[in-house]
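Page 47, continued from p. 46.
Same chain as before, 290 aa.
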Amino acid sequence: MAGHVIEDSYSTAAIRIEDQDPEPSRPVGEFICNVATNDWVNDEYKLISLDVHEKALTAAAGQFFHLLCPSPDGAEVWMRRPMSVYRVDKQNRRVEFLYKCEGRGTKGMSTLEAGDEFNISGPLGIGFWLKPEWKNIVVLGRGVGLATLAPLSQLASDQGVGITAILSARNPDVVMSRDLFQSYNADIIEVLDTDGSSEVSNVERIIQSLIGEGKADAFFTCGSNRLLNLMKQMGKKHGIPGQVAMEQIMVCGFGACYVCVRTFEIDGDRVLKRVCREGPVFNMEEAVGW
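Result:
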């Protein structure tokens, strides 16, 4: 049965690195879903759509699910794979994930066919947020990081916020999420390695122009350390706030194991935070590159 709930809550009593949980009560479920589609979008990426229980449809932009991927070769896949939500389709009761087939987990995931069962748990983590005073935002991402940022376009569109999406990739064939950004009326700028337009100096000129046009009330990024550092620098220079979705290896997904701890700078101090629990979306100015 599609969307069967195994468990729909977890304890928040784990010892914390920080003094206060940003969201002390967050329901999460473990679901047996049915695969609706699992199709290639290009030579490297697939888009999987799952029929899910209604509780999985509460996932917000920037949150993730922990996926129990099948084995691609007969050997057991020991750990779940964290994956950010690409799209929540409430009308059809589906959740979608856009993923690159490169490791054992995602290669196993790529073997799933329509009708197959798939075990997922979530939604997990802290997602993106928008402030009422932000009327125009700049989204900058690269590669599969764009899959994490894509749902932000729906969130912004629902709140009447203008979007400029700068999509970075090796070449035009692997520019991710173009169609989804377009469906929410985002202004799209593609920057590519093949023509040199993805160079940091050129991206900086583009962002500077957007600032001058009053189209940059907040910055959002994912998928590239150099682009994160650029946005941090420009945000600090121009007083523009921002958020970054961090990528990190995880084990438990809800803060108990501390495998996903990263370092952040807050008021001049180095602070450890769990990407799965305090994130994966963080204040951009506090994030330290990797």
